[in-house]
Every structure is written in C-alpha cells, then in structure tokens.
Amino acid sequence: MLSERMVEIGLPQQSDESLESAEWDQATEKLRDTCDGTFLVRNASNKDSGYTLTVRKGGTNKLIKIYNHEGRYGFCEPFEFNSVVDLVSFYTHYSLAHCNSSLDIKLLYPLSRLQENEGGENISDDSLETKYKDIHKKYVFKTRDYDVRFYKYTRLREEVNLKRQALDAFKETVQVCVDHLKLQEKMQTEAQPHEKNMFMDNNRQLIAKALEDDNIHKLEELYAHRESKTWKVNCTRDKAEKILTGKPEGTFLIRPNSTGQLALSIVCNNMVYHCIIFKTERGFGFAEPYNVYETLNELVLHYAVNSLEEHNEQLTTTLKYPINGHLVKKP
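Structure for Phosphatidylinositol 3-kinase 60, as requested:
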C-alpha cells in the first residue's frame, strides 16, 4: 500500500492552513464514480518534494506533480504561483491542456473529506448517526400522529355520511306526507258528503303504504349494515359464488378464507369478486394505510357509502346489499 498522505483543498479562497490530510487510499476511494473535473491535492511521497494533484478525467484518476521551489509552485518551470491555492484557483478557470495535451479539463469540483454544518464545524460520523436517529424518531412520531388523526377523520366522515343519508330519507318521508295531505284536502273539498268517510279511509291507507315503502325500507337498509348476521356467512369461496351469482350489483357477504383470514365476496359487473380483509394492530382494512377500522362493522359502514374503487378500479360499487338483509326486523 502506498504510504503517501492526501491533503484536501476546499474552495479556492481558503488558505494553505485549511488543507486537511487523509489516507491516499481513502482519496482514491472518494474519487471513484465522481464526475470529470473532480480533484484533490495530496502530499507527495517525499514530503519535501511538493504535492500531487489528482484529477478525474475520462472515468480515471490522472496524477500531476506540483513542484515547490523556493516558495513558488507550479507543474513546470517557471514556477509562477505563490501557493497551491493560487495554482488551484488559476486552473479552475483555465484548462490543464497546456501542461498535458491529454488533460483538456479544468479543476471544477474540489473534493472535501469532511462535511460542514451551518456553523462551519466538522461533523463526525457519530454526530451524523445521532442526528439521523433523532430525525427518524421524530418521523416515527409524526407518522403515528398522522395515523391517529386519519383514523379520527375517517370515523367522523362515516358518521357524517350516515347522518346525511338518514336525513335525506326523513326529508323524503316528510315530502310524501305533505303530498298526501294536499291530496287529501283536495279530495275532501271535491267529494260529496257521503264520500268523505270513504276518501279519508283510503288516504290513511295510502299514507301508511307510502311511509313503509319510502322511509321504513331505507331505514331497514341502514340497520341491515349494522347487524353482522346480515353479511357475515360461514362458507367457502365456491359456496359464496353460488350464493351471490345472479344477485344485484353491490350484494355482498364476508366469510373466512382458506388461510384463516377474512374475505369480502361481492357482486359487481355481473361477476363475483373476492378481496382479502387484513387484520392488523391498528384495525381492519383492505390495504395499508387504510387498515384503521376497529371492527368489521365500522369497515362495512364505511364502504356502504364509499366505493371500493380506491382499492380496485374494477369494483365500482359500494357495499349496498347484505346477503341476509331480510333477517333484520323492521324498526
């Protein structure tokens, strides 16, 4: 191994006292894979005989002797530079070609052995490791905080969607009642005295039927999703496909799969699709980072109003109809 010592030069305006030494093999390693024009200056083998410039050219390291004669420096006589720094500064603007025709390149990128922080102090490997660990610790904390906030946001969004859906159902119910009241008033006004009782009985039956068809049915759908017995079925994949074949789009069930996990089977585009439901420490879900539902009920309620398309572009549907929704008693 060469016994030579390497001296690195920082920016051209630095003084001679700023030259830092390191092992020659380290310098060679540092220059590897650097771009053309990267350079460093090291002490020559004979410390009384000046320095050696190493510059990257054509993917290899080129060495040029820097002579020191009576305090003057240069590659050859006459030695025109007062210091190595002056020499380097000159060749950052002018090519080395006049010294060696094969070296048509400037000293573009000084190689620095030590990184510097904002205060100009050297940063050791231990300091960098400590800073990295501190940054990683903060990153983990921020990631967990984000997950918690995202989970809370998701639950609030589900709650808002469910309440909006219920509100829409009640608004429609009110409108049905208003329409029938207007109809009743009109018919009572136009009816003969002996027909009024008949019309009143008929209107009561119409209103009751409308309430049942337009409101109670929608409420049943909401209750159906909340009851796990309407969608949780202990069956195989093949059995699930037989059960769901021919059912309306959005009809679904949740079943165990062959690996002991849970799976969603759902009808979409006249086909039966199957999706694994993962259970993690944070909760249930179809994929990270969406495994945030504490229970299967919460997952079902979320995707009852949100499309599965975000997980699979072919699943352009929500969890509309639990396979056993008819088991829910009317409220």
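Residues 125-190 form the longest helix (66 residues).
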